[in-house]
Write a structure and sequence with these properties.
13 helices, 6-stranded parallel β-sheet, about 40% helix, 7-stranded parallel β-sheet, about 350 residues, Rossmann fold, 2 domains, alpha/beta, single chain
Amino acid sequence: MRIAYLAHFNLSPESGVAKKIASTITIWKDLNAEVVLYVITRQADVADWALSLGGKAFTYTGGSYSVKKLSAIDRATKDILRWKPHAVYLRRDLVYPGYVQLALHLPLVQEVNSDELAELKLYSRIQYLYHLTTRNLLDRRTRGWVFVTRELCAAHPYFSKLPGRKIVVANGIDLERFPHLPPSTAPQPTLAFLGYSAPWHGVDKILKLAQEFPGWRFHLIGVSGEQFPDSPPNVYFHGRLSFSEYLPILTQSHVAIGTLALHRKHMNEASPLKVREYLALGLPTIIGYKDTDFPQGAPFLLELPNVENNVESSADAVLRFVEEWKDKRVLRSEILHLDLRKKEQDRLHFLKGVANVL
């Protein structure tokens, strides 16, 4: 089985997305698939990261519709068509002519991680309108779909009606790569968030929590303090850090914080990579949505209502949760079903079915 894994990627090589891609490719290779990562990026560190995985990088400068970006996608497309893999696995992106060319000549499978149209509406009206009018050019030619939530697959008004084979594979994590941390020895309740300041992450809600609990410490990893100049004094901004740099912060944290404002992009279910990382390390977590891998909830997940005022209305519940878990960690035995190896076996089997190489 030969697979071209194609991703337009400009996040940090230390991001959860990068870790997921690297783990997926490694496991597919362990399962005897021949995989080449094709990365389209404008970042030198991402290009180096792709090359370190034995992949290929196609760099560009400029914005979403720059000539150099279109050229990079065109070069990647021609390289994939020359190689003739059994399938192309595309991390869902805006639609470009190169992607359509691939779908015309090879079985294309798209991985859908969110309602990207709702996300674009929060960021850019131009990109929102472009994607709204062009996405069907690629989607009606797509042979297979991998969704990270049941909601996106079965209940979404657009995705649920698309042709092609479909499967739900919630985000997982390579548990072997993460240590299980001992309980924190910090003298005061310490909470940590790992991510960036996307509207649906709800960083503004974390700041409200910090105001509610001035005796607690809040560490925001991946978030710049310049974006929040009026934040409470018990909030500590760390910006972008590598895993080795932020691990000591998580070690001293009693509880982690996941996505708190998924309602802002009209979603109720998710399986965020950062929450898998928290749980692998043993950190109980506060979330604001239904997790795909925990449909009945879990004692170590405090699920707040998925509404705008969820933090204000749940302060007492947050206090009880932190008090209950501050001297404990999540047992590894409770999260074994998050392990990426079983999930990747299912994903690879699905790809073989789409490409008819079973």
